[in-house]
Amino acid sequence: MPKAFPEEFRRDVVAVARKDESTIVQIAKDFGISPAALHRWLKIADVQDGVVPGVTKEESTELREAKKRIRLLEQEAEVMRRAVAYLSRDINPK
Questions:
Q1: Cα separation, 41 vs 47, whole angstroms
Q2: C-alpha distances in Å from residue 27, one per residue of 15, 53, 81, 82, 91
Q3: pLDDT-based confidence at 51, cuts 50/70/90?
Q4: Is pTM, for the whole model, over 0.85?
Q5: Same domain membership, residue 45 and residue 3
Q6: Are residues 31 and 69 in the same domain?
Q7: What's the whole-number mean pLDDT along residues 33-57?
Q8: Based on the domain organization, do 10 and 39 belong to the same domain?
Q9: How confident is the model at residue 67 (pLDDT cuts 50, 70, 90)?
Q10: What pLDDT is recorded for position 82?
Q11: Backbone angles phi, psi at 57, to 5 degrees
Q12: Do 47 and 21 fall within a single domain?
């Protein structure tokens, strides 16, 4: 798998592409990337800047962390339910 380009490099390429001084293909060629990669970077930058609706990187990270926390809390609740069921069977024998 190819090595990812640094974030600063991506920002610089997107800034050049947004100036509309040259075509996307020419800019991609000048920077040594594929035009498809540049299109993708432009889409991501539009979402990050709020130009286009979508989930930003920060929101995605926050959502991932929230889902982890929810999963952990659900596991803890299940352990507590099982502990209560185990301990209560000794109190109320049938």
A1: 10
A2: 11, 26, 60, 61, 75
A3: confident
A4: no
A5: yes
A6: no
A7: 90
A8: yes
A9: very high
A10: 95
A11: -60, -40
A12: yes
Domain count, the chain: 2
What's the pLDDT at 1?
66
Question: Do 64 and 84 reside in the same domain of the chain?
Answer: yes
Q: How confident is the model at residue 93 (pLDDT cuts 50, 70, 90)?
A: low
84: containing domain = 56-94
Say whether pLDDT at 91 is over 80: no
Q: Are residues 49 and 94 in the same domain?
A: no
- In this prediction, residue 49 carries a pLDDT of 86
Do 68 and 48 lie in a common domain?
A: no
Output the 3-class SS for the chain. Answer: CCCCCCHHHHHHHHHHHHCCCCCHHHHHHHHCCCHHHHHHHHHHHHHHCCCCCCCCHHHHHHHHHHHHHHHHHHHHHHHHHHHHHHHHHHHCCC
Same domain, 89 and 43: no
